[in-house]
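Title: [Solved] Iron-sulfur cluster assembly accessory protein 3D structure

Original question kept below for reference.
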Amino acid sequence: MVTITDKAKERILTILEAESYDQSYFVRVAVESGGCSGLSYKLDFDNEEKKGDQFFEDKGIKICLDIKSYLYLAGTELDYSDGLNGKGFEFHNPNASRTCACGESFSV
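Solution (posted by the thread starter after getting help):
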């Protein structure tokens, strides 16, 4: 399961409203090959279910992972930072053995 912080929830709700996404949209979190550490995180908004999708809900936000990504992201917390070092979503992944300096890629 992937969980989200209160700050991530607030940012997700802001984006959903700004983009005029209706109740059918959810957050799709995935892992892709690439990045300086081997694997990179991907976060999108989607409203189409695909074969093998795994759905979770945390703090009222519907989160979707494909089966491959679930294996890498189980137990991950999605956060949002708006500090001086940059704005954006951050992944706190207990399965990552190494991450790059920018925090956008990892390896297991």
